Amino acid sequence: MQDILADRPGLDANAVEQRARAVLAEPLYWFPVRHHSPSAARFLAEALRARRPRVIFIEGPAEATEMVQHIADAKTKPPIAIYSSYRDDDNVLGLAGIASSAPDVPAKWGVWYPLLPYSPEYVAIRVAKEIGAQVVFIDLPHHGLIAPHVAGEEEAEEEEEEGEEDDEVAPAEQASWENLAVESDFYRSLAETAGYRSWAECWDALFEVGGRHADAEEFRRDLTYFCAAVRATTSDERMLRDGTFAREDHMWRAIATTLAEQKLRPEDAVVVCGGFHLFMRRELVPAQVLPKGTVYATVAPYSYYRTSERSGYGAGNRAPKYYESIYQHTQGPVAVVADAPIRAMVDHVVAVLARGRRAGELLSSADAISITQHARMLASLRGHKAPTLDDVRDGIVSCCCKGRPEEEGRYLLAAMSEVEIGSAVGRVTPALGRLPLVFDFYRTIDELDLGETMGKEKKTKIALDLRQEADERRSVFFHRLAELGVSFAAIVEGGATNTLFREVWKVEWSPKVETQLIENNLYGDTMEAAATAKIDEELAREQDDAASVCERLLRATNMDLPGLVLRIEETAGHAIDADARLVSLARALTHLTVLRRQAARKKIREDVVKDLEGRCFARACFAIPEVANVPVEDHEEVLAALKSVAEALLGDSGVGFDSVLFVENVRSAYAESASPYLRGAMCGLLTETRAQPAEVLSQEILKFAQSRPEVMLTCGEFLDGVMATSRTAIMLGAQSLVEAFDVLLRAASWEQFLIMLPRTRKAFERLHDRSRVAFADRVAELYGLQEGEGDKLAQLDTSAGAAAWMARIDARVAELMKEWDF
After folding, report:
1. How many CA atoms within 13 Å lie on the side-chain side of 546?
2. For residue 530, which of 374, 523, 637, 684 is within the disulfide window of CB 3.0 to 4.6 Å?
3. Last residue of a domain, one of 480, 504, 527
4. pTM exceeding the 0.90 threshold for the entire prediction
5. Do residues 448 and 342 share a domain?
6. Domain span at residue 326?
């Protein structure tokens, strides 16, 4: 490692070496690691068995030390993860309403600390149990890094929140020493000189493969030197900003305090931490006061995918299954450590080719031979002692991809990724028990006789008759899970539709269900409490949005949350009165209509819902003129809203909607609109609601026939709007409409007809087949055929050859028209 340190710009190699030697010579035994490193895990186990310390300090969340016994339990099988959460119940950080949805909603944070079978921390815990050593987690609890709100810093906090896309990434993970290493001047210089394309490639070449280190002491020494160089080229400002200093002060206090309290010598202890932290200051500073609140810590099953970089995990392993293979080949009494990368490569290549063949790739055993030879050659050219994952990846692509990898090789790349990551899912000892919300979930599963759904990866469809009490209770349970984002149940049919008494749910248990429940434990100890808190939080964000509030009122009803329903009723009234947007009000009206139909079964006051429905209808009517000239991109959304309001009026079941109010506002919007499409839609609505006779549509068509050419050309748009909103009532005036359209076509030139044709054709395609036949009958009668013979217009007396040509032409025209932008 000394040769790597030499001649690095801006690096005092002698000072770095002296600092590293000082740490290595301390009586307190420091062992540097990298998260999820097979080599670090193997050499650490070797060192612990040789030294047999009485206490092992591990860089893990201090609040989870009590979980060590469950992690070490023989019935616990990685991948697993420590989960720690914090809820600021009394707003001591002042972040309610800033880091949460409203001032009365506590801010919450949750953090995952994954452990794989070859994570050094996990291996240290297992060896500690074997040799009878105590394990102490020494890292600062994650909520100790949350900065309290300071007045006047709102803008800076908003910018910071915009950058936080994944709330599962712990502050400690964000400050991972690997991230600091990548940013250091030492690593950048090393990567440029050696040609490393990534931090992972650099690590593999120096520490993971090739048998560079004969024993634990050589590995420990070289990694200490390396980390000393990284630390020397990392600024204090950077470490202060990301919390490194705060974490290290907590670690040292935990180490020193434990040794003093238990009257242990430094020689009796081993410290297992990221290599960067070996150089923490050895001073007892005043202990950091942690914010008060609710703290949970537990251990949950995890998966290789969630531990991978692909899932977005900041300190992720790029290939969990591949590195597990390397680790496994170093274990056992006859394991040849130097051959482990080669054996892992062969296993990996064979698995990738097998997966690729299943996807349809033409791959063979000869490809496996050429890949391994190619990977060895690349490793030699790049100065690697043995093939790294990068060499193996490049070998697979070079030997098996006959074209561009992202296109011709996409199935091969997918196979590589799947095999590298693996599908392993862990389990946790039953002795741990369960968090309250998880316990409530399994209790409810038993109560509702849903035990048969808990089979691993078993998919089941469950049809519910909501008139049956047992099925109604199951529906409530499933709706609560859906509200919490727990993937156990997904609705297929029913819900917020016109299907009042039937629901069909797809039910599937998977290990991530328990993980999702743990994340939601911050919201409450039971399914009911958590669902209530979740909707309360959403309402705080959207209390002036009528559609959102009424949707949540319906969801709260489906989840049987009576207390919440009463609160939302008041909020819904406020939102309806405050919202002036037609689209939002129309959606709210739809939700309220469904709710009214369920009122008797759900035992909620129908008169209250009717009042909300009536107010929402009136507000929607007043909002109609405001959409008369919306942009073209909003037309379909506005059209759907107009139809919803009209359907509510036509389906009025004793609510007492004011039809005059609707008609007046539609007429007003019609008069103000400059959009032929929207004018047609509103004219169709007036016809559909019987506010005007169907013959009025014919009169409007005749006006186009008598208009200027540029106005005439918009008739197709007008007719498209009519057909979009009035498919039944216009049939009453089909005869006069056909006659008026005939006048229009006679008045149009050939060029004008071709311009109008696409939009006109689209308008008639909106009609049901029976309606189109009825229109064809009117056309037939107009041109002298008998009623009912309209379908004969398509029956031409011609030769088979001519008919075939006509069919080809029509098919070609249809293809071209698919590309037309109407």
Report:
1. 27
2. 523
3. 527
4. no
5. no
6. 322-421
